[in-house]
Known about the structure:
Layout: H1 10-20, H2 22-35, E1 46-48, E2 54-57, E3 66-69, H3 72-79, H4 90-112, E4 116-126, E5 131-142, E6 150-152, E7 155-157, H5 160-167, H6 178-190, E8 197-203, E9 209-216, E10 226-229, E11 232-238, H7 239-255, H8 269-277, H9 283-290, H10 298-301, H11 306-310
Parallel strand pairs: 1-5, 6-8, 7-8
Antiparallel strand pairs: 2-3, 4-5, 5-6, 8-9, 9-10, 10-11
Helix pairs in contact: 3-7
Amino acid sequence: MSPAQGQFSPTAFIDNYLRHQYHVDEARxxxxxxxxxxxxxxxxxxxxxxxxxxIVLPQPGGLPTRVFGNCxxxxxxxxxxxxxxxxxxxxxxxxxxxxxxxxxxxxxxxxKAGLKVERQVKFEYQxxxxxxxxxxxxLIVWPPDVMHRxxxxxxxxxxxxxxxxxxxxxxxVGKPKVENVLQVMLYLDALRDIPYFVMPYIDRGxxxxxxxxxxxxxxxxxxHRLAIINGMPNQDMNLAAIYRRYRQLAEYVATKTLPxxxxxxxxxxxxxxxLHSAGLLSKSKYEKHQQGxxxxxxxxxxxxxxxxxxxx
Length: 312
């Protein structure tokens, strides 16, 4: 509700800060932190975050393979320091910050409950001459009477899709999001004394939760180091495929070559029908398309470079 004329609105005041200055301040603070880091062994290597990981996976129903995870074009522009054409709106920033608050709350409670904890554990490692992977883990705990550490990566969300597909119910078995599993696979490769990660997904609306367990199969060859999700190996999700995409992105950045788009802002009618027939498009989105509305990948709809990429 808007304030009456002449009355001060603290929320609108904060909105103005979030819209125009918050991300500038965040970028400056990140730059200051990076500048304070010790020199790298290979200064030519490009630093990637686990959140920039991606992989090409098959789809059901005879559909072609597709990318899951971060779009190469989006990462390319971000790595080159391009200014977003579609900055995050205050609502989106608040959602992001709310997820961080919930993560801190759960970490606090884990410690108060008596667990020995390590918070915001940083790591960095070289993967070949051109790729440096750098990140931090939400939480690492020492369970009682267990001789090893356990990684914890909190995720939160809300809404029908999150409740049905990620947390699950009596009719649907919940599954972790692919892009989140890719991040945890990299954590496990960096912190090899940790046998598995627990991924608690928390519904910010209902406060329901679901834990998914991710580990890596034991193998010396990265092609055979598979993601094991809730006890089931995924033959298509391996570390080699993730690092392959990182190296491709490093080549694009080094040669200043704009990558192809990995996602679509708007599907054509034929693709909508194929996805709907394969059960990969919800009934509500299919009806939205039939009403003449835009249906496409959410990665494009919420991309900070949407206008720069698509011209709209």
